[in-house]
Amino acid sequence: MPASNHDARPSSPSSTFSAPDKTKSSSAVLDALQADLDALLDYHLYLSDPQVHKATHDLLREYQHQQNRITSEISTVSEERTRLQNKSVEMVAKAKACKEKVALLREKLVACEKRDGVGTEEHVAVDGKLDVVLGTNVTGGQEKWLRLL
Questions:
Q1: What are the boundaries of the region Disordered (predicted)?
Q2: 62 is a domain residue
Q3: Contact, 97 vs 107, CB < 8 A?
């Protein structure tokens, strides 16, 4: 346990306690305050110099210009990201609509084949595309139509 300030008392009751010299301590405090005041005055004079003031003003203006440019670039990137996200949603919706349309056209094709007596067994699905099996009675126009699907 560290020793307390009470332990630092003189061990002998006969030793006298002398009060600190107030003149010395207040003089040291005044000297320190005067040094701080002189430093502040020097700094104020430095900042009051027209060249320093202009240089500081120019630096602040350049900083604000760069900050505005960066803010503008961030805004542009954010707008572009939003535009691309919206475009992506739009493309997904179009792809879904196209898939639905293809499914509907396939259903119509099957209905037409049944009506015309062409069996659906003559066609096979390859990679999601309806393809014609060679050697069937499908005409050239129908074959082209089937390949487009």
A1: 1-23
A2: yes
A3: no
Contacts of 125 (CB under 8 A, 6+ apart): 131
> Mutual orientation of helices 50-116 and 22-48 as an angle, nearest 10°?
60
Give the 3-state secondary structure of residue 52. Answer: helix
Q: How far is CA 99 from the centre of its chain?
A: 35
pLDDT in tens, 98-130: 999 999 998 888 888 787 776 544 454 444 555
Q: Which residues pair with 123 in a beta bridge?
A: 132
pLDDT at 132: 52
**Residue 77 placed within a domain:** yes
Domain with 51, as residue range(s), is 32-101
Q: Into how many domains does the chain fold?
A: 1
Q: What is the DSSP letter of 132?
A: E
* Distance (Å) of CA 97 to CA 60, 81, 88: 55, 24, 14
Q: pLDDT digits over 67-82, tens only?
A: 999 999 999 999 999 9
CA distance linking residue 106 with residue 127, whole number of Å: 15
* Domain presence at residue 60: yes
Q: Is residue 24 part of a domain?
A: no
Tokens coding 74: 């961030």
Q: How far apart (Å, rounded) are the C-alpha atoms in residues 15 and 55? A: 64
